[in-house]
Amino acid sequence: MRKLKKLLVYLTVMALFVSTGLTALAAPAVGEDYTFEDLADYVDYFFEEVIKRQDVWGMGDGESLDPKDVPEGQAFVSQSYIDALEEKARELWAVGDGGEESVEAFNASENKDARQALYQELKSRAEALESNIRTGTRPSFLDSLYKKSETAWALVDKLSGSYGDAEDPDSQAKNVHVIWPEEDETVDDEFINNMNSMIPAGHYWILGEDWMYFWQSTEAMDWVYDTLTEGDKKLNEAEDTGSWDALDGLGALLDRACERTREMRSFLETHLYPRPEPENPQITVQEETHGEKSGKTQEEAAPEKKANQVKGSDGKILISTLDGVYAAHRVDGIAVVTEKVQAEAAAGLQGTGSRLSLYTSDVSEKNELLQVMEEAAGMLGAKTAGAVLVDLYAIEGGRVSAVRNMQAPMRMVIELPQSMVEAGRTFSILVPDGRGGVLELVDLDQDPSTITVDTMLFGMWTIIYR
């Protein structure tokens, strides 16, 4: 009788959480006499084996009975089926609670018809319960996607709350003034100091092309906003339809959006004037020198490399002929060697007030396109050594547009880090051709530490070697 009482407590608590790997046994047979013992075993089977052992979740009023709303693999059934079976089971449990005399009276021959009627009612309700058990399909990874999305949006909100265009009515911060120097103006110390003196206290200014890079370069803030908005849309559609395949790869995209938001904040804080305190200040490194301690930052410990110049094995330094934002650190430098006037003509620029600007940045190893390029390199008998983004923009007045078609190739040189250069290796560049294929840009120089290419294509440049 104690076992039946424990079952009653169990049903009251309804701790029915899911586990789907178990298969229930067959319901025990009930003899023609319909004894209390047979009926008790029959009821035990449904509450112990069907509900408890398979952890069937009883869904009450107001709870969804749609499999897409229930965790993947979770068995569930409407609580009404459990309640209906429990209602009849209580009649049997009351007999057991009455002790041995109550059980003997229940098993008396003159009560056989009543026992049979109780069994038929129990059987009907038990079978209805069992046949209506369903299994949830909501994948376990969904919660992690929501967490990634929330984290990314929090980073974006923090960034937009810290810095925003002073002229944009939708900006939260309204503290960044975008400055486009005149063609004959040079951004030198005098220019910077003058601008700093004109900016209101607590405000910043930034060069227009740096501001455009922050928003419109490859995987910059426009991309982050679009990615997060599209991600939320996919999550909502998946929740509505129960179609989870559309979420494939979303986790990696959300991770990339987080990473790019942090990178773009760092970029912005290093291109604003006056320089704001960075989100993560440099940690001071204490170095021992002849028994004395001197505080040096990590930034001071190593001289800054200029990313818009390359140095060949012969020591000759080439400085890029194009201005822009050179933020690729996976290589030691990138330089355009085609004369500025020739490059602008090849891009179709005409008239005063128009110029080209080059933007470079690193490519995350998690970038999905990099995996495609690795496969393409393998088909060419080569291996990849990383990738950089190389984007060319035309700036005409206040309008910025990406250059997609050059009328003539532009020569560029990449300086490779020493860790990448090994005897016997030959390097080249793989770049998407815009038609679903890739184009290999062959190295035109004999210097093992640089790659020189003539190109009319920009975007993600993957460095390969054989």
Task: Give a topology summary.
Blueprint: H1 2-13, H2 36-53, E1 57-59, E2 75-78, H3 79-97, H4 100-106, H5 112-131, E3 134-135, H6 141-162, E4 176-179, H7 189-198, E5 204-207, H8 208-216, H9 221-241, H10 250-269, E6 284-289, E7 292-297, H11 298-301, E8 309-311, E9 317-319, E10 324-327, E11 333-336, H12 340-346, E12 354-362, H13 368-379, E13 383-396, E14 399-402, E15 410-415, E16 427-432, E17 438-442, E18 450-455, E19 459-465
Helix pairs in contact: 1-3, 2-3, 2-5, 3-5, 6-9, 6-10, 9-10
Estimated structural class = alpha+beta
Count up the helices.
13
Estimated share of beta-strand residues: 15-25%
State mean pLDDT (0 to 100 scale): 83
Helix content class: 25-40%
Please characterize this protein's 3D structure.
The protein has helices at residues 2-13, 36-53, 79-97, 100-106, 112-131, 141-162, 189-198, 208-216, 221-241, 250-269, 298-301, 340-346, 368-379; strands spanning 57-59, 75-78, 134-135, 176-179, 204-207, 284-289, 292-297, 309-311, 317-319, 324-327, 333-336, 354-362, 383-396, 399-402, 410-415, 427-432, 438-442, 450-455, 459-465. It is an alpha+beta fold. The strands form six sheets. Strands 10, 12, 13, 14, 16, 17 and 19 form a seven-stranded mixed β-sheet that branches. It has a three-stranded mixed β-sheet with strand order 1-2-3. Helix 7 links the parallel strand 4 and strand 5 (204-207). The longest helix has 22 residues, at 141-162. It is elongated, with a radius of gyration of 35 Å. Mean pLDDT is 83; it is low at 1-24 and 280-304.
